[in-house]
């Protein structure tokens, strides 16, 4: 196995092990950040950090929104542009 792929796999496994769902009852309770498109999740975290100082909480909220609608943050941007 290529060393870069092996290192990536180890980092991914560590990230999955460290992610704990602290906001119970959300639509993404059974999911992990790796289950989402990285660019969409990044957009979502950036938006949600306007409402919290916790990157973890922002990630969970973004995951909940993206579970509801994979285009949530693209649609939000379009809606805000119309205002």
Name some characteristics of this structure.
mainly alpha; globular
What does this structure look like?
The protein has 83 residues and is mostly helical. It has one domain (3-82). Helix content is 63%, strand content 0%. It has helices spanning 3-18, 38-48, 55-68, 72-82. Helix 2 packs across helix 3 (55-68). The protein starts with a helix and ends with a helix. The mean pLDDT is 85.
Give a topology summary.
Blueprint: H1 3-18, H2 38-48, H3 55-68, H4 72-82
Q: What's the SSE pattern?
A: HHHH
Structural class: mainly alpha
Low-confidence stretches: none
Count of runs of 4 or more consecutive helical residues:
4
Helix content: 55-70%
Question: Main β-sheet, in a few words?
Answer: none
How big is the Rg? 14 Å
Structural domain tally: 1
On the 0-100 scale, what is the average pLDDT?
85
Span of the ends, CA to CA: 51 Å
Q: Count of DSSP E strands?
A: 0
Question: What portion of residues belong to β-strands?
Answer: under 5%
- Given the C-alpha coordinates, what overall shape results? globular
Short account of what is shown:
The protein has 83 residues and is mostly helical. 63% of the residues lie in helices and 0% in strands.
């Amino acid at each position: 196995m290529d060393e870069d792929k092996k290192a990536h796999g180890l980092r991914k496994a560590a990230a999955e092990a460290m992610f704990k769902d602290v906001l119970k009852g959300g639509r993404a309770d059974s999911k992990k950040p790796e289950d989402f498109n990285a660019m969409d999740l990044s957009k979502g975290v950036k938006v949600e950090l306007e409402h919290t100082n916790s990157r973890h909480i922002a990630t969970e909220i973004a995951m909940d929104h993206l579970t509801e609608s994979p285009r949530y943050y693209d649609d939000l941007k379009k809606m805000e542009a119309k205002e």
